[in-house]
Each structure stands twice: as C-alpha cells, then as structure tokens.
Fold:
Amino acid sequence: MAEPPSADSRYLRLQGLSKRFGATSVFEGIEADIARGEFVTLLGPSGCGKSTLLRAIAGLTAVDAGHVEVDGETITHLPPQKRGIGMVFQHYALFPNMTVFDNVAFGLRMHKVPSAERQQRVDETLSLVELETHAHKHPHQLSGGQRQRVALARSLVLEPRILLMDEPLSALDARIRQHLREQLRNIQQQLGLTTLFVTHDQEEALMMSDRIFLMGKGNILQKGDGEALYTRPESQEVAGFMGAYNCLDAQQASSLLGYEADAAQVVFRPEALYLKSTTDEINDPTMTSHLGPGCGGVIVQRRLLGNVIRYRVECQGFALHVDALNRGARYLLSEGANVMVHADLEEARIL
Structure:
C-alpha cells in the first residue's frame, strides 16, 4: 500500500479555488499540492488566470469558492499581511525617494523590528542578492535587473513562508533576464523557499522549475516536471503551447509511422523528425535507428535559430517543422530541395 503524502509534500494546498468577475469565470476548481521548498511555475498564455490565481493565494483577490492552506493552516480568511507570503511583481513598486537600504528595510519598520536586528537582516539580504555595494543608491541610479533584485530583497527580508513572483523578469532584456533566472533559482534553493512563479515564457519555466502547472482557460491542463510536459503532452493544447509541435491527424501521420494510429491526433516534436535529401545524407547522422518509413516533401522555408536550423517542409498536403542541429554550411539543405522526412517512432505522441 502506498504511503500517504507527507505534510511537507502538501505544504501549500489549493483546494477547489474558483473566481469569477461577473459572468466571466477566471479559474474554476483549482486543485494543487505544492511541497515545502518546491519551485513551481504557473505557465500559460495571457488571460488564462495564472496571475489572478497568484493574487488569490496572496490574499490580494478574494476567491468565490475553495480554500488555501499553508503548513496545515487555512489562510483563506486572512488579510495579505497576515499570511506570511512575499510577493514580487513585474513592476518593481519601489519608493523612488528612498535608498535601496530603506526600500528593503521598509517592511521591517512597519513590523516594528528593532533597529539593530533591522540593520543585520537588511545587510544579510542585500548580500544575498549581491547589492550590498548599492545600499545607499536610489532606484533611478540602478539598472532594471538591480531594481528587480531590490524588490526581491524587500520580500525576502521579511522571511516569508512562501514567495510569489508575477512575471518578474518579463520587462528585462534577454541577457539580464538569463542571469537573473539563474540567480533567482540559486537563491530559492539556498533558502529552501517554497516559490510560485508566473510566466508565459516556456523556456523560462523549463529552466527554473521543479514542476510546471500549465494553465489554459482557467484550468490546470497538465502538471509535471519540464521533461514530462515537453516530451509527453497529454493534449493538443499542451503540445501546442510547449513548443512547435507538429500536430497531425491519424491519416497524415500514417506515412511517418508506417501505420494508421487509432487516435484523433499524433504529435511529433520538430527535433524528433529527420530529413534525408536525394543524396541520402540524413541531416543528423547519429540518428540511424527507430525511424519510420517517411514521406516525401519539399523544403519551402529554412530559418536560422542559432544552434538549430528549422525547416518547413510541405509534405503531401500538410506541413511539417523539422529542427536540425546547425553543424555548418556544408550540411544545410536548400529551400526547394526534395527530401524525405522520417520520424523517430519512439518519440511519437499519440493523443
């Protein structure tokens, strides 16, 4: 008999949470357990309810039904300041007339923390986010990434039980965003802090999360680690959001599989398809087994995606996207070239 889940595995519990604005349902019957110290990302397109759900957990938005529990305590009725939850927003909401130190210390002052302890906690937190040398600067003297770290420090200094982050990196440029992803994850792991992170960026979710809750139209469509959601989507909607999946009906997929699947949809990741030109050079020479019979087609588009080349192939009335490792110019296949497209049969996903 399986052991019952531990209290630590159900540190944060969302039980039947529902929210409506008038006649519009924002989310309905949300159920989830989040472990102590886990980093969970709420991923989904704009309007799916992820940010409203985060605000409901924080107590900033009242729910119409359901309960929120933290460490066995129901907190649904508590105001935000009594929940022990920190929140970081996309827009930093710093006080422009205060220094970095005073911005971080503000919450401690409101809680009447003694001066000596306040000084120590602010110093330690600024060191944690690598801003100790900027303590006496004002927000306008900082970069966007530095301001976001001040906002993070302001939450961390209060030693929250749970940290909620609502698209905190989306306003930053790509290089800074990449660095802060790694820094945020390192800090979260160092502190063992239970964290919910909202984003619409699949790469961000895959890179940072222990688990991902993919949301759509007010529901959680699929939960799991990044590998599970990316390689084993449970619906066409999940497959479509997690990457440039090729979604085919059973008849279209039959030429790739070698048989007609008893399913409404068959999906293939673009990197699970392989091209063979008329000169019999497979675009990935390491892939020689588990290939289906393939279908003929014509390359109608070739796009450089850095270390990957994405081909669009028109293939017997339907189009396929095929990703190949960029191994240099002599391995490129030209637009207009006649090719065979083969699928790795072990990577086909039957829906």
User: Anything to note?
Assistant: The chain is about 25% helix and 30% strand. The first strand starts at residue 12 and ends at 21. The chain has two domains: 12-240, 248-350. The longest helix spans residues 174-191.
